[in-house]
Amino acid sequence: MARKSKGIALLLLVVLLLVLISSRTSPRQALRPKTPVETDDPLPSVTDVPVVTAPPEATPTPPPQIQELLPGLSRNDWNLRLVNNTYILPNTFAPDVTAVRDDQYFDSRAADALEEMLKGAEAEGYSVCIRTGYRPFSTQAYLFNGRASQIQWGTTMTLLEAEQEARKVVAYPGTSEHQLGLAADIMDSKDSSMKAESAEGLPLLKWLREHCAEYGFILRYPKDKQDITGWYEPWHFRYVGKDAARYIMDRGICLEEFIALF
User: Fold this and answer.
1) Which residues are part of the catalytic machinery?
2) How does DSSP classify residue 80?
3) Which residues lie closer than 8 Å to 102 by C-beta, 6 or more apart?
């Protein structure tokens, strides 16, 4: 009986060992994925990669205001008054003018500067003549209306259409700088032509372009600024004062561009 009990116990022990071995090598355990092993040096994620960006562009230093470069100047100064198709003089405008050479008149505050410039040109051997100086409103209206009438005469144009054509060759009353008394059309007294293209190359006008700023004048209507000023007149010089004149002529800008700096 005891021998039989020992045999049963031995059989049970063998069965138990087989069960344990089977459970440790089951397919389910073999296919189960392994748990990732944590390390002290994990691979970086996308967000860990440093982003390379372009260096910020340097902010340009803004140019100094015109008041810093030319202290004391104001766009409201009498010698910087702007007159064109936008800034129109009233028909009551009448500056204080004085007689200058060639039976012309000029603003009394700038007449001496004009005479000095003309004498400077004469000292270089040029023959100088003022074709037009100050022109009152009534004279400007007479010239403009006369040209409009000439254009309309013998055509089917309306007066308004004729005036639009006249504006291309004669300034509308109130828009001419000659009414300011600060502008002069200067030509060689030996040359009677007033054609812009041919006058551009006259030695006298070249000298004036190079030296007018020394006397406080600018070439008011240069060819390359016609799209701004509306005019191309190489003989038309305007008084603005020495500081403003040097700034304008040195930089090759027109009066409209200079006033815009304020």
Assistant:
1) 233
2) G
3) 129, 130, 131, 133
